[in-house]
Design a protein that fits this description.
mainly beta; about 25% strand; 4 strands; globular; 1 helix
């Protein structure tokens, strides 16, 4: 943050925005969490924004490793 980066978490929360409509700042760090536990609460509090990938049906989560293909 000191160098002007925004911290954006990739997590499903009650306040997260859909990934595909979110306008990322030019200098962004994407924070991802553990596949089973997500981003810890103390880290979520530090983030500037949280986005989520819409997931339909079960399970309600998506593994991190294939997500780089969305860029």
């Amino acid at each position: 943050k000191k160098e002007g980066y925004s911290l954006v978490g990739l997590e499903q929360t009650s306040n997260s925005s859909p990934l595909f409509g979110f306008e990322f700042p030019r200098k962004t760090v994407i924070v991802v969490g553990n596949e089973a536990k997500g981003i810890p609460e103390d880290i979520l509090e530090l983030l500037d924004a949280v986005v989520e990938i819409p997931v339909y049906g079960l399970p309600y989560r998506c593994a991190v490793y294939p997500l780089h293909s969305l860029s």
